[in-house]
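seq:
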Amino acid sequence: MGLGPPVHSSGPNKGKPKEVGVTASGTKAKHGTIAADTVVLPFGTIVYVPGYGYGRVEDRGGAIKGHKLDLWFSSHEAAKQWGRKRVKVRVWR
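struct:
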């Protein structure tokens, strides 16, 4: 049995379905959308990731803690091809 569609875990929309492809900041996910620990990099922070390009922090995730980023890719296969990397990024606040 599946878990069902994702829902908001807190806030005024708690229990209501989440719109797929929409970030925590309310933007539509696309190339350049970055998820980060917003305590470290707040929404709107511009980041340059070598090999990926420029992006903006627009999302966060429970598993993204500290100095880690999650980059948006158009497919699961593209994300797997990128893999996990340890790179020095440039940050504009």
